[in-house]
Specification:
The chain has 72 residues and is mostly helical. The chain contains 2 helices and no strands. The chain has a domain of 47 residues. The chain is elongated. The two termini are 31 Å apart.
Length: 72
């Protein structure tokens, strides 16, 4: 049902057979859509510059991951 408007969800409940019961909460702003529009803050500027290969490395580290990837 993705990002259907709350009014469309009410119509969908009336015209579809076999759809499980659910309540449609009406909000002024779709929470998922609002969160998706958040932007990350930029990195602070720095005067540090690498002088050679691998002198300066930025990484985003996380893990261990609980889900197994498709390739294992």
């Amino acid at each position: 049902m993705a990002h259907l408007h709350h009014g469309a969800l009410n119509v969908l409940k009336e015209i579809v057979i076999g759809l499980s019961e659910f309540r449609v909460a009406q909000h002024d702003v779709c929470k998922g859509r609002a969160l998706g529009k958040y932007a990350k803050t930029t990195f602070l500027s720095s005067d540090i510059r690498a002088k050679g290969i691998l002198n300066l490395i930025y990484s985003d580290v996380c893990g261990p991951m609980l889900a197994v990837s498709l390739s294992g």
